[in-house]
């Protein structure tokens, strides 16, 4: 494994982990008012662009990272919508 691929995987893992504390806190407290919907939507759009780029260039760590962040962002959007509609 090349050094740049190792750092690609490290960066992908760390970047993906940044959403886990927010999702955990939202599920635990059921409070989502302080989470910016615009930030989440921008995360989805930005990572969708990274996913296309990574797919075109064959960057596996970035494909995995962008995909997971999109999924976690969508989970947060649904959770935020469901908590705030009542």
UniProtKB/TrEMBL annotation:
Transmembrane segments: 6-24, 36-54, 60-79
Membrane topology summary: Multi-pass membrane protein
Pfam family name, one: PQ-loop
Keyword tags: Membrane, Transmembrane, Transmembrane helix
Location of the protein in the cell: Membrane
Domain of life the protein comes from: Bacteria
Cellular component terms per the entry's GO annotation: membrane
Name of protein: PQ-loop repeat-containing protein
Organism whose genome encodes this protein: endosymbiont of Galathealinum brachiosum
